[in-house]
């Protein structure tokens, strides 16, 4: 579970919020698959609307160019972002995301390895509405500032608690990684982050950095599936 800080600036968040005011919203249960539909109670911006598609494409381009996202997920495919809204008393019970998703408007499918939530509402704007992710260390509660995101395994059971006051607006998307094994993907992420830290410290010999880069990229070559 990885927090991505300030994936969107305050100005960009405001832009998305303003644009979403006038778009059509649909019952979120219509977009849920299988058992998830019975526990889903929210609204989702109509993905067929031209303005919603434009906003989704803008955010898709941003997500695909965030270094920490690339490092953590090694994305091969990214599902078009979906905008959701929780008003008072709305929630999404425990569910697991579908393993295989068809990318809208195409014949392509995506295996959901990583899920991402991008928050467009600040925590002070609503009560409740926490993202709860079940992990081997217990349930983790996530409620981040607007513009922040959390990336977590799609295999995790998770839910959004009921909003008791205000309104929670967020974005969700899913990624198929070039490395399907979650443990290996985590190790590669930690290795890459360590390399980046050493580069930023500026006191590691270039030859040592080259050796680490060599190991990292050779592991990528060995285990990626594209």
Structural commentary:
The chain is an alpha+beta fold. Helices cover 31% and strands 32% of the residues. The protein is built from five helices and 17 strands. The strands form four sheets. Strands 1, 2, 4, 5, 6, 10, 14 and 17 form an eight-stranded antiparallel β-sheet that branches. The model has no long low-confidence stretch (mean pLDDT 92).
Structure in a nutshell:
This protein is α+β, with helices and mostly antiparallel strands and 226 residues long. It has helices spanning 10-20, 50-63, 67-73, 182-201, 206-223, and strands spanning 2-4, 25-27, 40-41, 43-45, 75-78, 82-86, 91-95, 100-102, 109-111, 114-119, 126-128, 131-135, 138-142, 149-153, 158-160, 163-166, 168-177. Helix 4 (182-201) runs antiparallel to helix 5.
Keywords, please?
globular, 17 strands, alpha+beta, 5 helices, 226 residues, 5-stranded antiparallel sheet, 8-stranded antiparallel sheet
């Amino acid at each position: 579970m990885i927090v991505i800080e300030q994936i969107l600036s305050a100005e960009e968040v405001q832009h998305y919020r303003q644009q979403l005011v006038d778009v059509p919203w649909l019952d979120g249960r219509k977009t849920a698959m299988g058992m998830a539909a019975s526990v889903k109670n929210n609204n989702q911006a109509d993905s067929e609307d031209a303005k919603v598609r434009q906003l989704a494409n803008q955010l898709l381009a941003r997500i695909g160019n965030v270094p920490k996202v690339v490092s953590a997920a090694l994305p091969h495919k990214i599902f078009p972002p979906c905008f959701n809204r929780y008003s008072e008393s709305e929630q999404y019970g425990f569910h697991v995301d579908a393993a295989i998703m068809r990318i809208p408007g195409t014949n392509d499918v995506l295996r959901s390895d990583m899920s991402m939530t991008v928050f467009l509402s600040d925590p002070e704007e609503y009560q409740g509405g926490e993202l709860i992710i079940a992990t081997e260390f217990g349930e983790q509660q996530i409620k981040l500032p607007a513009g922040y995101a959390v990336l977590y395994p799609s295999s995790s059971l998770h839910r959004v608690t009921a909003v008791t006051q205000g309104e929670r607006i967020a974005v969700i998307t899913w990624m198929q990684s070039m490395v399907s094994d979650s443990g290996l993907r985590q190790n590669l992420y930690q290795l890459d982050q360590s390399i980046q830290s050493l580069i930023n410290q500026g006191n590691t010999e270039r030859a040592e950095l080259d050796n680490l880069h060599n190991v990292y990229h050779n592991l990528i070559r060995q285990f990626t599936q594209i």
